[in-house]
Amino acid sequence: xxxxxxxxxxxxxxxxxxxxxxxxxxxxxxxxxxxxxxxxxxxxxxxxxxxxxxxxxxxxxxxxxxxxxxxxxxxxxxxxxxxxxxxxxxxxxxxxxxxxxxxxxxxxxxxxxxxxxxxxxxxxxxxxxxxxxxxxxxxxxxxxxxxxxxxxxxxxxxxxxxxxxxxxxxxxxxxxxxxxxxxxxxxxxxxxxxxxxxxxxxxxxxxxxxxxxxxxxxxxxxxxxxxxxxxxxxxxxxxxxxxxxxxxxxxxxxxxxxxxxxxxxxxxxxxxxxxxxxxxxxxxxxxxxxxxxxxxxxxxxxxxxxxxxxxxxxxxxxxxxxxxxxxxxx
Length: 330
What we know:
Layout: H1 2-12, E1 16-19, H2 23-29, E2 41-44, E3 51-53, H3 56-62, E4 69-72, H4 78-82, E5 89-92, H5 94-101, H6 106-126, H7 136-149, E6 154-162, E7 183-192, E8 195-205, H8 212-229, H9 236-250, E9 261-263, E10 270-273, E11 287-290, E12 293-296, E13 300-303, E14 306-311, E15 314-317, E16 326-328
Parallel strand pairs: 1-4, 4-5, 8-16
Antiparallel strand pairs: 1-2, 2-3, 6-7, 7-8, 9-10, 9-11, 11-14, 12-13, 14-15
């Protein structure tokens, strides 16, 4: 892998990489856990293995004096950058590493599959919880605890939205009480052994709201269309278009979520992006989170999220919960 990284560095005219603990750090170092407790830096130059450094100044000392362009970690903080005394142009290390991270090895896909299975288990257990009378905030806390019990090393997001709040894409759980007749949008996203997964499903308490199921069926159809579109050789834009065409054709186009999917792997949000103009070509091993959504302001919304891998024969779900609306009776 290091040889391939150096080839990319040469193509991009980058003389050295300086990484802090991050998805790029984990990719280059091979550390799969939450950086295995490591809080230092990693430097890769044109020769020798990656070298550890305790801090920015120590990392800078490992950069060759003749270096003209240095790739720095996208997650590096401003104070770290100001403490990195190198006489070179600083560029994002992702210009080198992002294309390589798209080509996921079988072991990486398997690790993402285990993360998806763990997220599945949390949502499956959530079906048995008592939702009626609880608040969104209280249920979100319970899901965070369930993620920790499932071995999640870092909780990246937990979404619990009830009723009209399901129509808010960036809703934060609050003290709204969950009542019969509410639609529920429940999503968990976390990192297990250095690999990320997100799964989202729709619940209803006692019975779904009027007209909800018709709209939800469109979201499911969009999810199926996107999954069917995943195969080697197609572009990210084409997969996204498959989902959007279903929603547009149903008359809900103006209420569609802003993107029907994005890449997932060592980070929970990375390329490819399933939006117009993204020409990234799917290859065997490309992993994405398919997440079409419809949001009807002040009424309700629906979103389904699954981790999917591009296999030689086409798209394959790594998260396996049923798509059907789950009606909880309490």
